[in-house]
Please model this.
Amino acid sequence: QVQLVESGGGLVQAGGSLRLSCAASGWTFSSYSMGWFRQAPGKEREFVAAVSRAAGNTYYADSVKDRFTVSRGSAKNTVYLQMSSLKPEDTAVYYCAATRSVVANHASEYDYWGQGTQVTVST
Model:
């Protein structure tokens, strides 16, 4: 059974940092590219970052570029999202997702989703 479980969310002050983790099980992790999305109340789910399945190339939304870093764990079936210089507008539920595509930034292209983890950035 394919499963994605996010962790690491919480409350942080503006300017602070958090690291989100997404643990994958039940499938061949290396066969999938991994993405992070977020959804704030009343807004659509938006792409945040992705890391490709083969070369490990990374892609970011403009809003998080130079502040967030996505990476795959070297030994475990885990993908991380290191978030720095957090802003109140980063407040959202963050989801990790998996796709068989080489890389994708549209939610519709992802096959599997985690349950989400809340990130709240206070002023």
